[in-house]
Amino acid sequence: MCGITGYIGYRDAFPIIINGLKRLEYRGYDSAGVVLYDGNQINLSKTKGKVSDLLKKFDSDTSKVGNLGIGHTRWATHGEPNDINSHPHTSQSGNLVLVHNGIIENYNSIKQELIGRGYSFQSDTDTEVLVNFIEEIKIQNNVKLGKAVQIALNQVVGAYAIAVFDIDKPDEIIVAKLGSPIAIGVGKDLEEFFIASDASPFIEYTRNAIYLEDGEMAIIKKRREVIVKKIDDDTNVDAKVQELQMNLGEIEKNGYEHFMLKEIHEQPRAITDTFRGRLLPEEGIIKISGLENNMKRFLNAERIIIVACGTSWHAGLVAEYIFEEFVRIPVEVEYASEFRYRNPIITERDLVIAISQSGETADTLAAIKLAKSKGAFVFGVCNVVGSSIARENDSGVYTHAGPEIGVASTKAFTTQITVLTLMALRLARAKGTMTSADYRMYLQEMERIPAKVEKVLEMDAKVEEIARKYLLSTNCLYLGRGYNFPVALEGALKLKEISYIHAEGYPAAEMKHGPIALIDDRMPVVVIATSRGHYDKVVSNIQEIKSRSGKIIAVVTEGDTVVRDIADHVIEIPDTEEALSPLLTTIPLQLLSYYIAVMRNCNVDQPRNLAKSVTVE
Ligand code: F6R
């Protein structure tokens, strides 16, 4: 959570930092702030609210001059979102300025010590404590900023990505990382440097970036160099400059009103990209190098444990059905946050799959570390290349969905399911748990999925029309069975997170064990009733709801006549194998929540209280 950006070089820092913050707002949008240094004085402006609010304040208050600057967009942890708690924070002397993404867990004891030495604090944040702690160390030890940062961070417990500068040294910014990401964009001829939580803020200025590893810091010297060091022992690190693959078009809305809608419509392309080079139906081949290189591990595993959070956890639930059916291996799906704290039984014969779009989710990262410490092999399914989780795993696979900026996950979910399905098919072949005829049939059907998703997206206007009827609902139930039970959970999560309507997902048959009591003529019930999945049973569930006056929105297979006669609304999707149906049934549910949220005037891309990358536990 929280986004950091910074610049040091020969250009005006202001537009670079503001545009960077806008691109990083997905990481948090409780408050925003920028500080610029023009060589004489610092110009600092910060405010509760979004970057757009900050811009207004900047216009009226503050100079925009300076070739050095740092900025921050916040997801509040310590201290409520208000102007004072916003970053950047300055030290008591006013000489040091710092932005921080993460949590300093022992900030209170450091704070008390600093108070004892005469420091006073304006904000409730751990960050103000950190900047003063660095200043105190700098003064007491009579050292340069870099050394003071290093000494301070060796005493800090928690997670951080920081950027800090000293107004006495306007040609230098120090950054450091532990648990939260930070990238350094390296400009042409080392004339300028960019700093950001991910590379999107500087993509139009440079394609060269250094990603700091945990426990590393960098001293960035304008027009000279970047020195990367280990924080614990001060040794220099030979940091690799990586070439960025991201395109500007991927991080802009491209004519869509919201990133979420753009990302929903990108799914045929995203799924195709996930297949690329991996699915070869003509040859009857699935090739995923991370899997091929570790085939023995997978084939010898006695159990697969999937760890993830939120939408990624739902993709894990779909994978449970697929792996157990195709590969005949027991699968357990765990919330990473529960797994990491409940002393789970894990052995070397377990294989853990960690799923994460961002690759930064703190609980998933901790679950991976725990599993590795017990000897399990950990395989990651991540979207963000080079992310912390991607680096922490023993091996893994990228989904290649492209940047997902809308806070509500859409294409990440379908591409996670895509890659997990490919893995299950490949393993089923290797294990002999699927006939070669079925295997080939699935490969061919997988290849047809993007075109079928395209077809579902043609329902967009129809779903919008249905959304209009339910925009004032206060509750909503989602029901599905088998492979589509996790889709019901995902549909409910999408609705609640962006429209703030209370929604629950249930296995359809569970309804009569409690939730049916909620049904009345004001309760919309979204039911996934595709023709191949326990269809008759789901039809009976629909009848049960109808007899209690519930309103049915049914997702059915093209040509369905039975549900059409009972339901209030039907959304038709193309026929496919039941195991692959989540890739289609999910789409109308994404559109439904999108349109309901838009009609309720909710901020779809930045729902309240949420952030895209949950780097705190
Ligand atoms: C919901 C959503 C979240 C994430 C969860 C895990 O739309 O986006 O529930 O799925 O925070 O995030 P990742 O996949 O980045 O680990």
Q: What can be said about this structure in brief?
A:
This protein is of the alpha/beta class and 617 residues long.
Explain what the structure shows.
The chain is of the alpha/beta class. The protein folds into three domains: 3-244, Aminohydrolase, N-terminal nucleophile (Ntn) domain (Glutamine Phosphoribosylpyrophosphate, subunit 1, domain 1, 4-Layer Sandwich), CATH 3.60.20; 253-456, 3-Layer(aba) Sandwich (Rossmann fold), CATH 3.40.50; 458-606, Rossmann fold. The chain contains 20 helices and 27 strands. The strands form five sheets. An eight-stranded antiparallel beta sheet has the order 3-2-4-1-10-9-11-15, covered by helices on one side. Strand 18, helix 10 and strand 19 form a beta-alpha-beta unit. The mean pLDDT is 94. Bound molecules: fructose -6-phosphate. Fructose -6-phosphate is lined by residues 309-312, 356-358, 361, 364, 408-409, 493, 497, 614.
